[in-house]
Amino acid sequence: MFALYQIISLVRRVAIAAAVAVAVPLLAHSDTLPSWNDTAPKAAVVGFVDRVTKAGSPDFVPEQERVAVFDNDGTLWVEPSSSSRPNSAGLRCPTPAA
To answer: Which ranges of the chain would DSSP assign to H, the alpha helix?
Structure first.
């Protein structure tokens, strides 16, 4: 006869197995860029990544040559280079009039 702890253990194992059986297909079918709307820009980005990461593609880029750039919020914006900013070290403050 099963002891209470054996029944609880069996119920836990069945519950875990059921959760895994449900979660795995859901995780495997996750959408690429789920927070993006299904628009032409999303299709272009996904298509580009597919082309450059697929071995044998004419646009294939080997892993050691790939560069990933991440911005703080996922948008792409130009940051001015240091040469376009005024160089404060080379500027002099006007002397105050006496």
So the answer is: 4-28, 40-53
